[in-house]
Automatic annotation (TrEMBL):
Cofactor-binding details, from the entry: Binds 1 FAD per subunit.
Principal location: mitochondrion
E.C. number: 1.8.1.4
Lineage of the species this protein comes from: Eukaryota, Viridiplantae, Streptophyta, Embryophyta, Tracheophyta
Catalytic activity: N(6)-[(R)-dihydrolipoyl]-L-lysyl-[protein] + NAD(+) = N(6)-[(R)-lipoyl]-L-lysyl-[protein] + NADH + H(+)
Function, in words: Lipoamide dehydrogenase is a component of the glycine decarboxylase (GDC) or glycine cleavage system as well as of the alpha-ketoacid dehydrogenase complexes. LPD1 is probably the protein most often associated with the glycine decarboxylase complex while LPD2 is probably incorporated into alpha-ketoacid dehydrogenase complexes.
Record Pfam families: Pyr_redox_2, Pyr_redox_dim
Residue numbers binding NAD(+): 218-225, 241, 310
Subunit annotation: Homodimer. Part of both the glycine cleavage system composed of four proteins: P, T, L and H and of the pyruvate dehydrogenase complex containing multiple copies of three enzymatic components: pyruvate dehydrogenase (E1), dihydrolipoamide acetyltransferase (E2) and lipoamide dehydrogenase (E3).
Domain FAD/NAD(P)-binding per the UniProt entry, residue ranges: 42-366
Protein name: Dihydrolipoyl dehydrogenase
Cofactor: FAD
Note, other: The active site is a redox-active disulfide bond.
PANTHER family: DIHYDROLIPOYL DEHYDROGENASE 2, MITOCHONDRIAL, DISULFIDE OXIDOREDUCTASE
Length: 504
């Protein structure tokens, strides 16, 4: 099996004109590690987020002397500290509260009273974050990665000056330096985030009380997730979005069903709406909006406004211009297929380069980058990176949307299967949503898969694997799926794509 897998990988690389010959490395692989970040390293990583810490561990596993520099003083980056992990903790906790209050009785479980203990809920979230950050530090020690806490900036292509968290300055030297500094909240003109009444996603994770009215600016992944958290806990949530649709990158058919689901949860939407002013001088916040194409202005009032208009690459203060690293007009670092910048020995991964701003994409970048540095082969296909919105129901996707295929002029077939026809979903009373598969009309090769359901983020990986191995819908349809499971909906959708489903 291993030999066959290696052969498939080499064939895959050849189809993309990537050489399978061993790469020449500028150093020998060894297990000697520096006792100090100021000694010369094989690899130095600036940033200890998902891309950076994974790159550091992988580099060390490949025998490279490695140092990771992280300004936060806690590993895991935005994702672990103030992003993916704490938000999922609150999404889960708030969902449990909502289920207890509104759903338990349907299953014969009667609860006399259900109350929110917000401090305890936030404490559980903080405990999860603390344990996971400590876990990464443990992995660093296990793999002998040198960890420097501080803010790093370039002195030269092989030297990084670090202002450490204890007030000292040190210089970390490396033959290969990887920039993995992630991204930061994108600000909006005229709106000052104070993390009290006008908050970013960071502030929305730690509100001291449940707001009666919450306005979310931006109908993307983060805004809808955080809106869901506070909506379940009792907030009246209004989402203001400049575009005509929520989550514009989502498949159109799925998006419409998703929006209807959120509206049933009492989330309100103001689409094609522009924010033109904000006043936070009083007890609450007044938001002045108008139609995106112009028109009469309206004033909205809220206790808290969440600004969730996207993220920007975080490269300020690195002194990239000092060593001549090229960036694009929005500040992303330009790299080639090996993650090399235009400056020899300097690389970049994750949110600071073009591609999806996702933690798991950054992790794959990190592994591939250090594999190239070590003289091996790395590969990430951004067209096959899954995306998940962790609301309830969740929405997960991989590959092309139907709109993209139409735009590209690709002939395709569509197979769909609703969870209303899935026995497991009906048995546990969570039958909202569907699976949608898009496949090439002639070859049956799967081009895109979109799932809306509870735990869609877990179900999607069967499709991710299929797409990465260029599987046909018939391949999935002919694989035996356990019964009763939610996963059977994927099999049925695959059957509907190339032939006909059984249970519909």
């Amino acid at each position: 099996m291993a030999m066959a897998s290696l052969a498939r990988r080499k064939a895959y690389l050849l189809t993309r004109n990537i050489s399978t010959a061993p790469l020449r490395s500028s150093f020998s692989l060894s297990r000697g590690f520096a006792s100090s970040g100021s000694d010369e390293n094989d690899v130095v990583i600036i940033g200890g987020g998902p891309g950076g810490y994974v790159a550091a561990i992988k580099a060390a596993q490949l025998g490279l002397k490695t140092t990771c520099i992280e300004k936060r003083g806690a590993l895991g980056g935005t994702c672990l500290n103030v992003g993916c992990i704490p938000s999922k903790a609150l999404l889960h906790s708030s969902h449990m509260y909502h289920e207890a209050k509104h759903v338990f009785a349907n299953h014969g479980v009667k609860v006399s009273s259900v109350e929110v203990d917000l401090p305890a809920m936030l404490a559980q979230k903080d405990t999860a974050v603390k344990n996971l950050t400590r876990g990464i530090e443990g992995l660093f020690k296990k793999n002998k990665v040198n960890y420097v806490k501080g803010y790093g900036k370039f002195l030269s292509p092989s030297e990084v000056s670090v202002e450490t968290t204890d007030g000292e300055t040190t210089v970390v030297k490396g033959k290969h330096i990887i920039v993995a500094t992630g991204s930061d909240v994108k600000s909006l003109p005229g709106i000052t985030i104070d993390e009290k009444k006008i908050v970013s996603s960071t502030g929305a994770l730690s509100l001291s009380e449940i707001p009666k009215k919450l306005i979310v600016i931006g109908a993307g992944y983060i805004g809808l997730e955080m809106g869901s958290v506070w909506g379940r806990l009792g907030s009246e949530v209004t989402v203001v979005e400049f575009a005509a649709d929520i989550v514009p990158s989502m498949d159109g058919e799925i998006r419409k069903q998703f929006q209807r689901s959120l509206e049933k949860q009492k989330m309100k939407f103001m689409l094609k709406t522009k924010v033109v002013g904000v006043d936070s001088s009083g007890d609450g916040v007044k938001l002045i909006v108008e139609p995106a194409e112009g028109g009469d202005q309206t004033t909205l009032e809220a206790d808290v406004v969440l600004v969730s208009a996207g993220r920007s690459p975080f490269t300020s203060g690195l002194d990239l211009d000092k060593i001549g690293v090229e960036t694009d007009k929005v500040g992303r670092i330009l790299v080639n297929e090996r993650f090399s910048t235009n400056v020899s020995g300097v690389y970049a991964i994750g949110d600071v380069i073009p591609g999806p701003m996702l933690a798991h994409k950054a992790e794959e970048d990190g592994v591939a980058c250090v594999e190239f540095i070590a003289g091996k082969h790395g590969h990430v296909d951004y067209d096959k990176v899954p995306g998940v919105v962790y609301t309830y129901p969740e929405v997960a996707s991989v590959g092309k949307t139907e709109e993209q295929l139409k735009k590209d002029g690709v002939s395709y077939r569509v197979g769909k299967f609703p969870f209303m026809a899935n026995s497991r979903a009906k048995a546990i009373d969570t039958a909202e949503g569907l699976v949608k598969i898009l496949a090439d009309k002639e070859t049956d090769k799967i081009l895109g898969v979109h799932i809306m359901s509870p735990n869609a983020g877990e179900l999607i990986h069967e499709a991710v694997l299929a797409i990465n191995y260029d599987a046909a819908s018939e391949d999935i349809a002919r694989v035996c799926h356990a019964h009763p499971t939610m996963s059977e909906a994927i099999k049925e959708a695959a059957m509907a794509t190339y032939d006909k489903p059984i249970h519909m």
